[in-house]
Design brief:
heterodimer; A: 11 helices; 73% helix; 1% strand; disordered N terminus; B: alpha/beta; six-stranded mixed sheet; three-stranded antiparallel sheet; 8 helices; globular; binds adenosine-5'-triphosphate; binds magnesium ion
Chain lengths: 273, 255
């Protein structure tokens, strides 16, 4: 085994070598994701129950605010499906950045493809998302008369696409936040604006009351088609082909751009840690 | 002679730290106009080779660039100029506790440490018992590592590193905290590695021990190789320099 430096991609000279190395280390990714869970379980009383409690509390808080106090959205199935899908993506921003910043010691001292860290975070948050979908059904089946139908098979399309989207998002955020730490402070605000721009706390019918250009602007939000496709899968909403196309395009674009940004930066990353 | 295990060629490393080493958006924008970065040249054209079967020591004062050099050799830090060629599987112990999660038990951390270093789960399974036995941690292996003393940490870290079947081992100060018994044991293990024609690069401020252990050594001074060669000679030269410096400083203090 011979390795030399420098190289365009610091870890490996070629993209396919990089991917092969990632695959070779899949046990590490898996362990890292599970290790995080275990560590959390060891230090909290409720342990694994938090995977269910977190989305439940989140859903409760939003239903309290936007269903009861400012009743903009009383359709709990619509609200919760949106919240959970949104949360899964939005947390990959801070999670991606923290996976690098919080592991600086590891990065400075040990050589491995850095993308492993955001991927492990993503895997961990995927467990959480799946748990939140269970919570969703526990609430909406009795309280909103939603019965999951065959449309749930659309999850097999939506979930892999969102994983790609989230990976891109996590990687891009890490790329930007490592040299510019201010960004980590901005993330909560960006997340909030993004939430208000997404069809979650307001009904889709609200869009009809605004001008065409404004509508177009709202539809530029990648969360718009993503949530729409999920609502088809989870709640049996009719599927608009335009949404499906837009979701595929957004997810692939963000995934590719984010990962490329990250890998290109990887060689310089330790200098900012 | 066979090809060297590590070849370091004209390596330059420059850091451009901002005021507090953490560039922020505002400061970066400010420095956009007038570049106000302080230039630190940690390594200034360092070249040397480490042969197979050789223990190579690196000595030098605080801030001389030893850790930076090891990071370049471990290829976690890309040099600004020059290159490093490595032949062989490398295991690194550059900082204590790296690759471990203190919340998790020692036992789980054996897996974590092995996986971080590039083994798969099956390979760690095969080595697990030997690692536990080697570390001599007994039942403490099931306790969270945050309850470990620094010596216990270093035992486990070294045990894992040596069971990765390294052909090259990089060590930065990490064995200093082990007790006498473990020091002897780790020395013996490292000699075995050398006998198998493995290579070791060793950074330590315990220069006498370093000279006894290493075949050759380099003295780094402000990012440059000041002397290189047989370990005792280089270490002696370094010690004389340090003593001369201290005398000069003392004389200045008196003047
Ligand atoms: N990330 C960094 N950013 C800026 N400067 C750095 C960075 N890392 C190291 N340096 C500088 O590079 C120089 C060499 O540091 P290095 O850690 O290699 O020294 P060392 O020889 O290991 O010292 P010690 O004996 O104290 O461990 C020092 O001046 C240090 O301040
Ligand atoms: Mg050092």
């Amino acid at each position: 085994m011979t390795t030399t430096t420098p190289s365009p991609v610091y870890y490996a000279r070629r993209f396919n070598e990089y991917m092969a190395e990632l695959w070779r280390r899949r046990d590490f990714v898996w362990f890292l994701a599970r290790g995080n869970i275990k560590a959390r379980n060891a230090s909290t009383v409720l342990g694994l129950a938090w995977w269910v409690l977190n989305p439940l509390l989140l859903g409760f808080v939003y239903f309290f605010i936007f269903g009861l106090i400012f009743p903009t959205q009383r359709d709990i199935a619509y609200l919760l499906s949106g919240i959970f899908v949104f949360h899964y993506s939005s947390q990959s921003m801070s999670g991606g950045a923290n996976s690098i910043i919080g592991n600086s010691k590891l990065l400075v001292n040990i050589r491995f493809p850095r993308l492993i860290l955001p991927i492990a975070f993503l895997l961990e948050s995927t467990f959480g998302f799946l748990a939140s979908l269970v919570v969703l059904y526990l609430i909406v089946i009795p309280f909103a008369d939603v019965i999951p139908g065959p449309s749930i098979l659309w999850l097999l399309v939506a979930l892999p696409l969102q994983i790609v989207f989230n990976l891109g998002l996590a990687a891009a955020t890490a790329r930007l936040a490592v040299p510019f730490r201010d960004i980590t402070n901005l993330i909560p605000y960006l997340t909030r604006i993004w939430l208000y721009m997404s069809p979650i706390i307001w009904p889709l019918s609200m869009l009809e009351s605004v001008s065409e250009t404004f509508q177009g602007l709202f539809r530029l939000n990648p969360m718009f088609p993503i949530i729409a496709v999920y609502r088809t899968a989870l709640l049996g909403y009719p599927l608009a082909q335009a949404d499906l196309v837009a979701m595929v395009a957004w997810c692939l674009a963000i995934g590719v751009i984010g990962v490329a940004m990250f890998i290109k930066f990887e060689g310089r990353m330790v200098r900012y840690l | 002679m066979s090809a060297p295990a590590i070849k370091v060629e004209n390596v330059w490393v420059r850091f451009r730290p901002y005021v507090d080493r953490r560039p922020t958006l505002r400061r970066s924008l400010a420095t956009f106009r007038h570049k106000e970065t302080q230039l630190v040249e940690a390594l200034k054209g360092v070249s040397f080779e480490v042969q197979k079967g050789e223990a190579f020591g690196v000595v030098g004062q605080n801030g001389a660039g030893k850790s930076t050099l090891l990071r370049v050799m471990a290829r976690t830090l890309r040099p600004d100029e020059g290159r490093v060629v490595v032949r062989g599987r490398m295991s690194t112990l550059l900082q204590l506790g790296v690759g471990f999660n203190a919340q998790l038990s020692g036992s789980r951390n054996i897996y974590l440490g092995g996986l971080v270093a590039g083994l798969n789960k099956k390979q760690v399974d095969e080595r697990y018992d030997e690692i536990v036995e080697y570390s001599e941690l007994g039942d403490a292996i099931y306790r969270p590592m945050k309850t470990y003393s620094s010596g216990m940490f270093s035992r486990l870290a070294f045990a894992v590193a040596m069971h990765l079947d390294p052909e090259i081992l990089l060590l930065d100060e990490v064995l200093a905290v082990g007790d006498e018994g473990f020091k002897e044991k780790s020395m013996a293990t490292m000699h075995e590695l050398l006998d198998r024609s493995g290579s070791i690069v060793f950074v330590s401020h315990a220069v006498r021990q370093l000279a006894d252990f290493c075949d050759r050594a380099a003295w780094l001074d402000e990012g440059r190789v000041r002397a290189i060669g047989e370990a005792h000679g280089v270490v002696e030269e370094y010690r004389e320099f340090v003593q001369r410096r201290r005398k000069e400083l003392r004389a200045q203090g008196l003047a």
